Amino acid sequence: MDAENDLSLAIPIVGDEEKAALCEVIESGWLSMGPRVEEFERAFAALHGHKTAVAVNSCTAALHLILLALGVRPGDEVLVPAVTFVATVNAVLYVGATPVFLDIEDVALPIVSLEEAAAKCSSKVKAAIVMHYGGYIADMPRWRAFCDERRIMLIEDAAHAPGMSGVGKLSDASAFSFFSNKNMSTAEGGMVLSSDENMLSAIRRLRGHGMTSNTLDRHLGHAHSYDVTVLGYNYRLDELRAAIGLVQLRHLPEWNLKRNALSLSYREKLSCLVPSASVPFGPGHPTAAHLMPVLLPEGTERGRVMDAMRRSGIQTSIHYPPVHRFAYYRSLNPNVVLPKTEEFCRRELSLPLHPAIEPGDADRVVTRLFEALKKGSE
Q1: What is the CATH number of the domain that holds 88?
Q2: Are residues 109 and 199 in the same domain?
Q3: Residues forming the active site
Q4: Residue 36 falls within a domain, yes or no?
Q5: Model confidence over 307-334: pLDDT tens digits?
């Protein structure tokens, strides 16, 4: 979308501060994992009430390493959502475990159902992954109690919820994303939070080929060589991305507040102009407002609505196609049926939401949605 008045679904907010931070890294002569990565880890952890964290090159890597560090292995099962990006579930297969798909609570509350979890929690289940869909926070105290009662581990997929109070506090570990469409971005990147220092230490080693020292340690003379004690991976974050992350992190609270204000504005406008379309969650539900999801009326031809919106210069998207219906996952388990998930994913439409949007833009989006739905019904 190149026209001046076009509205993208999500854009990274970057500028002179990020450029200056990148120039500093280049002038330093040290581009790979180093002191800025450590500073980024400490700052991100502090924002969430933790002592430290582990930076990696994606949220996918974060989830993979969390599962490894928690000891999830072949033969184990992991409770997972189907309303998520496929990486959440892929990470379970990476460690050889079996994903057990859970339905959502309701189309108005698209977070994995505790009732479903109780029904499907066999003796093979080792962990549960709870995703904060769209930035809307799941009921973590109830999930913590559920997992403690069954002696299974609790993992948060917090890709949509950086900077939210309480996130990362009740789970065994949480994974964050800094992809280009997230609330804060390093282009590619992720983070692991946990209060378990031993787990974080294991993840640090796993992210760097299982080596006992890294390149910076040896460069500074803190080590002369290294051993490899486990099968590790190349999941490191570099100094350039960490430098961008430090700048973005300073703006994250302000950006989250603006996202919240915009989503409330959307709700008001939609209820007035398009009452046949509903917004999941309640207006008071704690959220980082990563997505602006709307449930279209039953029977709406969503593709036609999206085409009409695009012709008006407005990008929309779907979050998400249900993972259990992808061809690959159907080939592994063709009998999974999740009625509420499937209805939600059939009707969901994501509207543009990011800090560069102004209230007038939200007015235009809702007006165009009203027109697209009216034309479709005619």
Answers
A1: 3.40.640.10
A2: yes
A3: 182
A4: yes
A5: 999 999 999 999 999 999 999 999 999 9
